[in-house]
Amino acid sequence: MRKKMLYFFLSLFSCTYSYSQQHFSFTVIDSANTNSTLTIGESYFQQEFGMKVKSNSVACKNNMFHFVGTIEHPTAVRIYFSGDKRYERFNQFFFIEPGSQEIVIKNGEKGLYIAKRPATKIENEFQSFLHFVNSENIDSILEPEVLVSYIKKNPSSYIGLFKLIDQSFMHDFSNEFNVVKTLFDSSITKTKEYQYFENRYLKQLNLPSIEVTNDVKKKIRIDLSSSGKYTLLVIWFNDCLPCIREMKQLVQLNKDPEFSSRIKIVHVSVDSLKFINENKATLKKHGVTWENYWDEDGQQLKKHIILDRYPSSLLIDDRANVVAKNIEVEKILNYIISN
């Protein structure tokens, strides 16, 4: 029989405020006798979260895996089989908390399933959360007002915070989420996770100018506050197909006088300067008539923002305040009119 192993990874944070490390124990009972490698990991592994990976597996006995460790507060984890195609569709998500908890895996007509979930306060809230948002799993994209409504009713919810960060990072940050800074209580706002979210998405950024390189390879500073207009700063690179699709959308939108009279578009390529001619050819091919500059690898831009997706965009008002990030281009004009 192949030796069974279970790998356990937790996202552990060192908070700015003092949170006591509390012990937990976690047991997985494999009643399905899969004889496979089971992996448990936090839902996203991002360096910005200050994550520390911890593996505390104890040798498997009687199809049972046992882990012990410390966590500061409830933590999101996934459980799935790795390296075994028979069970590749098995992917379960739950929360653990300080104290003892146990899950049981069984094999049914439709394959593996969780026969017993942890009987904990955080797991009970998780099931209530799924019912509230009318979803079968945590991965569904929620309407912003639904998530905000849940947080308003549950201001000390780690689950609300987790979903807020997860959806903003994995998909798009909605400007409707700005209100959460007034909704969470101090047990949440003191955590490093919330502070990361606040710094990344909620803090007002003022960006009056930025250093770039022009098409003759000269470094210049460009003004991003245009009198009486908004500036849409778009960050792209030549082999980025979504960037090209957005570029073509903007060309069409800019033909509308109502759009062009309110918004000045500026493109900044993060390509190497050796690709200036290729970038120029792309811009010409798609009918771009506004200015384009270069910032190799986003070196200057990264001093002000986190670049983790392309295209990225900033909508900047005439006082140089960044009022929206990565807004869908077809919604830009309505956003400006309504604000």
UniProtKB/TrEMBL annotation:
Coiled-coil portions: none
PROSITE patterns found in the cross-reference section: PROKAR_LIPOPROTEIN (PS51257), THIOREDOXIN_2 (PS51352)
SUPFAM superfamilies: Thioredoxin-like
Signal peptide span: 1-20
Lineage: superkingdom: Bacteria
Keywords, sorted A to Z: Signal
InterPro entries documented for this protein: AhpC/TSA (IPR000866), DUF4369 (IPR025380), Thioredoxin-like_sf (IPR036249), Thioredoxin_domain (IPR013766), Thioredoxin_ResA/DsbE_sf (IPR050553)
MF annotations from Gene Ontology: antioxidant activity; oxidoreductase activity
Pfam families: AhpC-TSA (PF00578), DUF4369 (PF14289)
Residue ranges occupied by any Thioredoxin domain in the UniProt entry: 201-328
Protein name (record): AhpC/TSA family protein
Organism the protein comes from: Lacibacter sediminis
